[in-house]
Prior knowledge:
Layout: E1 4-13, E2 24-33, H1 39-43, H2 53-58, H3 68-84, E3 88-95, H4 103-120, H5 122-126, E4 130-135, H6 140-149, E5 157-161, H7 169-188, H8 194-199, H9 203-215
Parallel strand pairs: 1-4, 4-5
Antiparallel strand pairs: 1-2, 2-3
Amino acid sequence: MGKSLNVFCDESGDTGFDNGASKYYVVSLVFHDNRFDISNQLNKFKHDPVFHTGPIIRREDTFKNMSVIERKHYLNKLVILYSILPITHKEFIYKKKGFNENESHILFSLVKDISFFLNANIEYFMQFDAIKIYYDNGQQIVFHALVDAFNLLKHKIILKNNVRQEKYRLLQIADFISSLKLVEMKFANGELSKSEQRMFENKSDFKRTYLRLLSKKEFK
């Protein structure tokens, strides 16, 4: 069996420009080299619910009847899962006001930035016999950006679209990372929602608990 790289993708924010639309847009890629078995790590969380970071923060869905303390418990589980997994990740973060209310500009920037990242690390990606990309097809802009950018490695690519977060913990990790990066942008500009303020009480704790952790596995 050859070397295989799994790439799990998720986004936070939206591509709209109407009132109420997100001011920021974040796309995260999580990389897992299949030579490193993670079944033991994942089994430790097999009895836990699906970790959807946004609903945990906003008290929605499975977490709607939980207190802040209970929901922080699940964020802490995500921290632990992230910490023990042999993964790396890369984020692409945008302020949407620079796109002139044009979704195609977001797509262009994503393709350009992901392509630049792949080119800058081409030796790493070329070592794999197959690169499997997992995306839930949540937003067509992201789907098209992945297809266009990874075209550089098209002979290696296996695109697994329409996958569900319920099945893949690493998709939940990609969601966790992109959600935290979105909160980071909001913190920097004093734009936290009330639910985010309750979950993340101050910037220094947020940096110490989450951002410092994420920096350790960012793809350099």
